[in-house]
Amino acid sequence: MKIAGVVLAGGKSSRYGKPKMFEIYKNKFFYEYSVEALKQNSISPVVISTNEKLISFFDRTDVEFVIEKETDTYQGPLFAMYNAFSTISNADWFFVLASDIPFVTSDFVKMMIDNAYGTSYDAIIPMHSNTIQPLFGLYHRRILVKMEQLLATNNRKLKLLLSDINIKTISFSTNEHIFININYPEDWLRYKD
Questions:
Q1: Contact 40/131 with Cβ under 8 angstroms?
Q2: Cα three-residue angle 125-111-117, rounded to 5 degrees
Q3: E strand residue ranges, the chain
Q4: Beta bridge partner(s), residue 96
Q5: In angstroms, rounded to a whole number, what is the distance separating the alpha carbons of residues 51 and 39?
Q6: Which residues are annotated as a binding site?
Q7: Residues annotated within a binding site for Mg(2+)
């Protein structure tokens, strides 16, 4: 089973006020926690999906980059995932992580991978507090056709994809910190200590 890692780092961070993937936690940028959780599980390649405005801020030579072209409208995670997946030719699965999740761990990544072995599901997605967490999941290459179909009809909602593929959900307890997503500066003030 060949797995590639995809870190989504092209969002506008409009609620945060600046690119939050470059916020620092324990001397590392937020996005580096996602990169390292993948790398510690020998996932290769690890690809950062970002945009033309942000690419110059990344300081990693051990990852690959997929750069989205700037458009007038926000493309969203479904487009970013499709854009990254379609550039990686030698992977069966893609492990997707957001870039603003500084509490993600390599143990979480390993546990998710263990659930993908020998399965016929199209995606393995965590469920936290009764909420699906699609930016912490594994996606099989076979869904590229469905992604392309949705994008061709200008349907960019990830929920539409998830409702149209065969997914396995993995439940996590409500007090699991891995899924803390930092949306506002005040969120980070609450969690960083």
A1: no
A2: 80
A3: 3-8, 24-25, 28-29, 46-51, 64-68, 93-98, 123-128, 131-132, 138-140, 167-172
A4: 6
A5: 22
A6: 8-10, 20, 100
A7: 100
Domains and CATH numbers, the chain: 3-191 (3.90.550.10)
Give the residue numbers of the binding site for GTP: 8-10, 20, 100
**What pLDDT does 16 receive?**
66
d(CA 50, CA 67): 5
> Which residues, in sequence order, are CB contacts of 117 under 8 Å at separation 6+?
1
User: Containing H/E element for 35?
Assistant: helix 30-39
Q: How many of the other CB atoms lie within 10 Å of CB of 49? A: 25
Write phi, then psi, for 16 (nearest 5 degrees): -85, -30
pLDDT in tens, the chain (193 residues): 899 999 999 876 666 667 788 888 899 999 999 999 999 999 999 999 998 888 888 988 999 999 987 665 667 899 999 999 999 999 999 999 999 999 999 999 999 999 998 889 999 999 998 899 999 999 999 999 999 999 999 888 899 999 999 999 999 887 788 888 777 777 777 776 5
CA–CA separation, 157 and 160 (whole Å): 6
What pLDDT is attached to residue 14?
61
Closest C-alpha among 53, 50, 27 to residue 99: 50
